[in-house]
Amino acid sequence: MPAVTAHIPESDLALFISGDVSMWTYVHINLHLAHCEACRERIEAYRLSRQRLKQAAAEIPEGADWDRLAAEMTANIRVGLAAGECVAPRRKLDWKPSAGYLSRTHGWKVVAAWAGITVGAAALLSAAFLLNLPASDGESLMRSLHALVQGGRSGSARLAPGIGDRGPVVEASSSGVELRVNGVVVSIPQAPTRPVAITVSAPGSASARYVDDDTGQMTISSVYVQ
Amino acid sequence: MFSSLYAKFGFIFTAGALIASAQALHTNIDLGGKDSPIVVVHYDDGDSKVTQRGGAYLVDFHPTLTLRNSSSKRIHSVTLLVEAQENSAGGKASVSVPSLDIAPGDTFPLRINQTLFGSPSVDVQLDGVLFEDLSFYGPDKLHLQYNMTVWELEARQDRKYYKNLLEASGEKALQNAMVESQARQDALALPNVQMARGRSTTVDAGQDMQFAFLRLPDAPVELSSGQARVVENMADGPSFSVHNVSKRPLRHLEIGWILKDQYGREFLAASLPADVNLAPGQSSQVMEDASLRFHGPGAIQGMKGFISSAEFADGSYWIPTRKQLDDPELRGVVAPSPEEQRLTSIYKRKGLNALIEELKKF
Question: For the domain with range B24-143, which CATH number is right: 3.20.20, 3.30.450, 2.30.30, 2.60.40?
Fold first, then answer.
């Protein structure tokens, strides 16, 4: 019997837990586990994680709109990934063209022109992206950046624990008012200033009062449960 | 040649990026039939935009409408209903502008600021117009005729108060009143509350908490036997006994719901409207199938209720007087009326003379 010396790869361990390895790999891993406490501990950690995941899945309320949640989380993940690329450390270039080479082969003016084009195009695309970024995506982007710096998941569907399982929820706070359906914000008035008053009403509405800076009018924006 | 070639590249990159990220917004405006008291003179999308989020669209809706009063009466309040089509997630929005004074033939702006989730096609409908004689036009799908009327009555009360103060005590007294009102508004804590329809279907550990009641003199209704099921910072299914102590039948009333946190701070958390149809001397039970969650430190320590307004069967209304609202138990939790907030805003932005000119208009 060959001696088992190297630790089991993570991917094989995960498949071993779920019973998705070949017979030979299964025997190989079992032989290793008999002599390796470190791998036995990793196996146990995987088993606990699977158990917790099953318990969490059982607590998800009925009627959750998975399609909408999935779409919302996918969009947030995309924003988070884009933010991750922005803050990821840049690889150092292995090759740096010398100044002498560039000037001999292409001319400084052409090189400078292409550098300018590249920078300008990147700036235009970034500006176009940011200008078209809705406020809620901006918030998602900021949360993603914050999460990447602090550590943790990027993006999240905002759930209202304890009350969100009762259907649509209206919320009023110093930030304004919003309507949430299945944990997803579906309607929110926006104003540049803090509301001067907020109310929620039992039939299912939330209102925020603002003074419009341009018109001087008192404006009351409301959201309603359907 | 250099500048034109690279300018073209820049334009192409920008156009492509904008096209790839943006969707066209389509707005349908319906302000009623030929007899509608307002017509659209101008519509500007402003910085509205539509972006795709997953399988649906996020609509940042910030248009400005210029409307004209095409009726023969002065308009004092307008409400528009705003809804994204195919809003399968449910929900609609509105924008109300009280404290107007638009003469026949005059135009006025109305700005909408909403973020909606649905299709890039948004419907804007007239839901109601309140005139100076308190008559109403519109389908009132949002049942805001009551609120619009209460706002107008509060506005009249407050304008009268400030005009009388100016005449009796002079500009300095008016200025002091404005400063005091602004200080009160700044000190008013805005609660963080959530409201959901329906009660919990699980048996929660909790207790029935009784309401304390604030009795305002000459209020047409007395509240008693109020309670709600309280679990930590959530209150479920509030109920009250209401007794008509007036000599006229009552049609509708609104109850203000005050919560107290563990530090003893009180907040006007919610409003409970109720259609009652109570004859003089008659009592009834008001129950609300709703849950209120309060985002404050710790659990709910106490609850109070008070009658904030009422409508009689003959169409007349009752609202608390300014003196009643000055009650120490209400002063720190009930926000000033929209009109008072508008007047203090005029004072703050434009000064005392502008405020005096504004008061002279009414």
Answer: 2.60.40
